Amino acid sequence: MRIYLVLFFSFFSLIILGQELPPIFSFAKEEYKAGNQNWMISQDKNHFIFFANNEGLLEYNGANWNLYKSPNETIIRSVKVIGNRVYTGCYMEFGYWTRKDNGKLNYTSLSNKIKHKLLDDEQFWNIISYDQWVIFQSLNRIYIFDSKTNSYRILSPKSNILKSFQTSNSLFYQTNDYSLYEIENGKSQLIRSGAQLQKNKIINVFSQDDGLLIHTQFNGFFKLLNGNLVKFTTEADAEIVSGSIYSSQMLSDESFAVGTISKGVYVLSKEGQIKYHINQSKGLCNNTVLSLFEDFDHNLWTGLDNGINCINLNSPIKSYIDDSGTLGTVYCALLHHNKLYIGTNQGLFCKDYKTNASFQFVSGTKGQVWSLFVHDNTLFCGHDSGTFIIDGESATPIFLQSGTWKFQVLPSNRNIILQGNYQGISVLEKSNNRWVFKYKINGFNYSTKYFEITSSNEVYVSHEYKGVFRFNLTRDLTQCHNLFTYSNPPKGKNASLAKFNNYIYYVFKNGVFRLNQESKQFEKDAKLSAVFNNGEYSSGRLIKDNSNKLWLFTKSYINYYTLNKLNSSLKRNSIPIPATLSTSMLGYENITQLSNSDYLIGTTDGFYVFNINELNLKNHKVSITDIGINELNKSQKSHSITESGDFNHNENNITFNYTVPEYNKYIFTEYQYLLDGFQDEWSEWSSKTTVNFKNLPPGDYVFKVRARTSNSFSDNIDVYEFSISKPFYATNLAIVFYLILFFYLLHYVNKQYKNYYSRQREKLIEENNRLLEIKELENEQQLMKIRNEQLAQDVDAKNKELAVSNMSLIKKDELLALIKEDLKKTSEENNSRSIKSVISTINRNISEEDTWKVFKEAFDTVDKDFLKKIKQAHSSLTPNDLRLCAYLRLNLSSKEIAPLLNISVRSIEIKRYRLRKKMDLPHEKGLVEYILSI
What we know:
By secondary structure, this protein is of the alpha+beta class. 22% of the residues lie in helices and 39% in strands. The chain contains 13 helices and 65 strands. Strands 59, 61, 63, 64 and 65 form a 5-stranded mixed beta sheet that branches. It has a 4-stranded antiparallel beta sheet with strand order 1-28-27-26. The protein has a 4-stranded antiparallel beta sheet with strand order 2-3-4-5, with no helix packed on it.
């Protein structure tokens, strides 16, 4: 068991490298979307960075990457910005790129003019600028281009060239036999032979006051003094030998950056001390450094075998990243007796301050460390297991009953410390010059992560899930009483409580609240709460440092407040480090003051330190880099960024890209834009570097963009003016045409209305005439109807007269028959001749045939052709049948007809029946109805 313990503690005593490194930007090929390898780096006056990449010329402006394919689609091996030109060299080709009006680069070949002079399979690995000349170096020859006369000169050494170099005022190259030559008056002069250089392959040559400093591939630095090669020993020599140097660069402060094949990059002081060793485990994308470049802001760019890095060497921020996970997440830190203590979820670690010494595990502290606290020259450690007193690299437990969050000295007694535990508050007391646990305070058993105590022994506690409590302590500190729970402000996630400037503050997502010492109520502090405007709240963590600064953490900034020198108001200061970069645990953010100006902030994978006095940021310039226009549902095309735009009405979808070419990892740049003619106010600040306006109406516009880093605004507001023309149908000419057309239409409509109303009037007159005619016709028809009715009445009257006449004739005949009978009787009795004569006369006057003939003639006069029509329809009808039909035509009843035919009514009915049979009438058809219809 003891062996396992020894092994356990030996593990935590292993070296955890303690070097704090400058911030490192990493760019993988998936981000810049080009080839793996980057052979050379340069920068233009706009601070844009250019890389000679396997896929072409790669440009980075701080916001966007642009790749330009080489003219013959081969690997670009070299790049150099000279004036407004970007010179490049690749396989069998060299030339330069210039920027067009739309911000894109356009290539011009220089080698085409001397294409016939190029050697087969030649590649150009380096470009050097010297006065008016541009030198393109291949592995075979050196081509010297005069930019003023556009003439060429070719330098052809006897041996192939390994590499070319430039110092402040000289040009050198080394050949395959390791000899070093200088170019003088366009000719080669041997400086040192390969034997004299001990057959060292030279990586770079630097000029110094006392001669040349030569950097070799395997043997480090040599000084060339008075013709002698003298070794310049550095601290990194032993390490670098096995790494094989591929690139090196003298920096502006006369320090050196050394790129190796397998060990990353070393930064050496001018005396040869190792300042930094940065490899893949410490943030580089790859350990093979093909190229090095220091930009205008003294950032070190590394072109790697797989990726690109930007190292902010001059940044006031330095970071320690624990990729191994041994250190863990940092929750607290403290500088004590010149040792830096780091409390993490793995335990407590320490190292000598401001050295590259490794972190050592403090034995006995395995587990979560919550806080570190110094009082009376004693270092206390709040731990998940309890409370420890730390002495150097050893820990002594003094309280193990519960985990300890925080320590607070009792205002009235410096020998008593209250500690917040998982289950309330307990008391530590200094007795016999030793700190010991005394007792737990009764009456309050909630977890006490954040608490403050006033001079009157009044305690305020913030509990994340239960809210804020207030209670008083008894004089002997054994009991709490008058426990009060605040309903306002309510509980809040990641809330905290702290004392600053004799006020107690409570912070949660709804803002910052200050305790009113008279009313004992928390009141919202509008000025401090403003820090959480625009959704900036991420955590309520509130920290007061040793120099009386109050720290708050938001999504985009680390903020601190200081007291005004002339009054008690608070001044806000912001450090543009967003929560996404600081990677602190929400609710457990921590900042520790190491000195007057140096601070340490713990993160989930280590920590970073910074000098607050060196955080003053220089102003930057914002620039529009690209303007894209497109019609609806069509591809975008770039437009000039130097000239005002005049776009067609359908080219009203416009995209602006802009940037501040700033490459500091912890400088957070935000942008704000305004489109005059479309917007009345500036947009909200945003980190986005592009904005798109869709379906802009015709008009004149001015686009403006500005930037800020922290509280520092850009030196300029970049402006672009453009206009969108009206479509033809909305131009002034079209409007005049529309007016003419309108008045013509108005005239035409008016004329048409007049014609219409004229036609309507004529139509109305015609209609009225027609109505009058119809009325006249109706009147005539009515008159005719009346006449017909009159005629019908006349016919009926005639019929009645006819019937009466017929009846009169019948009555006459009946009377004559009676008289005749009487006369016969008288004649028989008297046998008088005169009586017989009378009887004879009577017989002549009572003939039925004569009576029917008279009736028929009269009937034909009234109802012409009836008898003829019915005879034609029914040829089988007898005269008696026709006679009966005539009587039925007169609408006489059987009773009325019987005497006319001198027969009984019964006989008339029989006659009617027989007549129906002769006419073959259906059962449902009436006889009289039929006769009347003929």
